Amino acid sequence: MTAAEWARVSSDAFNVALFAYIGAMVLSFAFLAFRRDGLHTAAIAVGVVGLAANLMSIVGRGIAADRTPWGNMYEYSSLLTALIVLAYLVIVEWRYRVRTLGGFVFAFAIFTMAMAVSFFYVGPTDLLPALNSYWRQIHVTAMITASSLLGIGCLFTILYLVKLGSERRQVAALRAQTPPPILGGSVEADLGTDAPPDYAPGADEPVGSGAPAEPARRIGLPPSATLDRLAYRFIQFGFPIWTFGVLCGAIWAQQTWGRYWGWDPKETWSFITWTIFAGYLHARATAGWRGTKAAAVALVGFVSLLITYYAVNLWIAGLHTYAK
Amino acid sequence: MSLPVPPASSRPPRLTLRQSFAVAWRTLRSMRTALVLLFLLATASAVGTLLPQIPSSPERVASYRATHRGLGAFFSRAGFFDVFGSWWFVLILSLLFVSLVACLIPRSRAMIRSIRQHPIQARELDAFPHYREFVVPGAPAEAAATARTVLRRHRYRVAMSDDGRAVAAEKGALREAGSLVFHWAFVLLLVTVIVGKGTGYVGHATIVEGQTWTDAAFNYDGDIRTGRFSSGGHTGIGIHLLDFADAFRQSGVPMDFTSTVELLDPAGDPVRTDVVSINHPVSFGGVRIFQYGFGWAPVVTIRDGDRLLYDGPIVMGQDASAGENPLAVPWIGFVKLPTLRPQVAIQLELYPDSVAYVSGLLSGTPQPMTEANAPFMRYAVWEGRLTDPSLTSLDTRFMHQTATGGIGQGWTVDASSGCVVSGAPRRLPQAVTGVGCPAGTVAKLAMTFPELKRYSRLQISRDTTVPFVLVAAILILAGLIAAMYSSRRKVWVRAEARDDGSILQVGGFALQRKDRFEEAFPKLVDDLSAAATRAPAESRQEVGAR
After folding, report:
1. Are B163 and B186 contacting, i.e. CB atoms less than 8 angstroms apart?
2. With an 8 Å Cβ cutoff, is B322 touching chain A?
3. A246: distance to nearest CA of chain B, Å?
4. What local confidence, expressed as pLDDT, does residue A304 receive?
């Protein structure tokens, strides 16, 4: 096949992936609404088809352009989507057996892809010479991987806050009953406090936090403690990779521009995002900052991540604008 | 007994200077302060990306100040146009590092103490989250000794009790060590960055093919950024540009820029030949040389009769507006002749590939001029008073234009009247070549254009601490990973005599990553019992478990 044909294959596969993700999202939400196992199976199957098409699109693009297919924002977004969906399917669905979050993840994937098509589309072209370095591959791979992990972590943080709110409302409703039911033991511990319940003082992880055994038939969001833990796991996993990516970027900048750090907007925002997530990890280890406060920090980090990823390229002039 | 209740209106007791210092120190050390400082740093950095900054784009700062007068003046005074060099950014950073060091010193001390200390024995092992007890053959002392070996094999640090029947074991000191390395590496990073930037310099050198440039302060073009603690000295090395080459794709997208240079030591003797290209800087004599830019430098001679007024290359710049392909835009340069009366300046406009330029004009889409192909210059001659010696601009306020014309490579023209003396091909229309000079004209400003050369713009930087910055960065990452993926675990084993054998009690817990310990603990127990009974774990006689 010629480069043009591969380019065609790539963009067709991209569209297939986008529509498959939309289908998977609809099926996932339908599963939440109607609680039929078949819907969940269908959602995952369609999601896997979407992922396959997504990967196909990336590979086709690489062949068409004859280079690693991460050289501009369109390609980053495609890769980011694939990694988000892959991480979700492997870690959340397969390892943790949590079945209720797919719709949100697919929605995020669709958003990323839609942004790519509408704002960042470019054909499979050659790169500027400054981008022609093996550090590009390492730097970009690390940044995209970290972005997808941190993104999923923040998605779980949002769901954690949602679930925490509904748990608190349940407790309030129970308390409002006359005579009030006796709340004690795990219910009280689970629902009544600000922090997720099963934290040992001084430890940064919940007690007995293994992969939860498959619940008999859990429909709806998992308990807030599970969501909080998942969020923490993803962010904890993504943070060192983000650090590595920023360091690789600095090495590359030293080679290309003759300085490892220059407060270029993209550099600065990657640093800001790093700072906020570093703050999150510290907050998790600090009494009085766990729970909702730490979650708020993670959400600020997520906003900063989106700014780093999108806004810097769309609105702020700097050296990284060629990545458009 | 009851405490005396102070009256409601009483103020808190006044602190002595020493006490207030202690309070300030404790506040600075707290995680809360560190977090607040971290977020302040992030916010300040964000401001630095939302407003134009003087170091990176001074012209945008100027236009911002022109459009937002009041706000611009305020921002300027508050240092918002140079956030990363402002006193408050430095203050936040300093406070953060003071807070960091204040927190790290006691933690490091505790770390050293705990490494020296032996694991401490525990009493009631069945109180721990993980607990097993089972029967093993042999005397208690023997069983405990075997357990100690097994724990050692599992890379625990171990200590025997005085009676020789109990073992205390722990591992995961790497967690705290990694965390300390991570945080100390930031201190190292800050110090190396300050030393490197403070004692180094960065500047740009423009070298025409065939010329030699020497590293000295006055040879840099434009501003040279010098560190605060720099001695002001330069290396004195020489760079002789042998050749500059570029490669473009059909679309006009650049592929590579390559400068072949001969490097000279401070005495001026050639040392070696090397190639500087994008992503491939060259280190030499204490500086690093990067490919930064390029351009055209036509060689021009100007004579007044027998008197040579000018002979040399003219470094040309560009004035491309946004959105234009800079390669399709003509290049501009100036020759200034201050010794003539009245003073004379010649403005030159170069079309390195006049064929591509003309075809771009005809087709309506500007064509990139990447190669020298029938190079052509338009010129305008100004007479009057020169106000500045700049070679990149011309102030025409006190000058008037006396002639214009065109000159191709190999031509000779009389710039004072704009006519062509010789060299213009006959087939070109007169609109391009201009009029021929009348026979017998004595050119007042005979200008020739024998050769079109290229120049290369190189970035020269001196930063001696780059390797140490890299070391700090690697330590940051290594410390981070060690801290995040290791966990502290404690295990105790005690053997009690029973009948002809012993009961082995094993208790333990993990401070982090408890799910992993949940899997690791049974394996450890299996190994302990297998070693003690020299039998597979399945035949173990369990007495108690949790």
Report:
1. no
2. no
3. 10
4. 92
Q: B280: exposed, middle or buried (C-beta count within 10 Å: 0-12, 13-18, 19+)?
A: middle
Contact yes or no for B278 and A130 at CB 8 A? yes
State ipTM.
0.78
Chain A within 8 Å of B284 (Cβ-Cβ)? Answer: no
Q: Based on the fold, state whether residues A122 and A172 are members of the same structural domain.
A: no
CA distance B354 to B250: 17
User: B476 contacts in A (CB within 8 Å)?
Assistant: 243, 247
Contact between A106 and A25 (Cβ < 8 Å) = yes
Contact of A263 with chain B, judged by CB distance below 8 Å, is answered with yes
pLDDT value for A126: 59
What's the CA dihedral at B105, B106, B108, B113 to 10 degrees? 140
C-alpha distance from A226 to closest chain B C-alpha (Å): 13
Domain of residue A53, residue span: 1-126
Query: B122-172+487-545 domain in CATH 3.40.640.10?
Result: no
In chain B, the percentage of residues whose pLDDT exceeds 90 is: 29
Which residue from B39, B256, B469 is facing A129, i.e. has the nearest CB? Answer: B256
Query: Are A227 and A114 contained in the same domain?
Result: no
- Whether A129 and B255 lie within 8 Å, measured CB to CB: yes
From chain A, the residues in CB contact with B35 under 8 A are 279, 282-283, 286, 289
- The pair phi, psi for residue A11, each rounded to 5°, is -75, -30
Burial of B518 (C-beta count, 10 Å sphere; 0-12/13-18/19+): middle
Q: What letter represents residue B354's amino acid?
A: S
Instruction: Report if pTM > 0.90.
Output: no
CB A159 within 8 A of CB A166: no
Q: Which residue has the tokens 């892809």?
A: A113
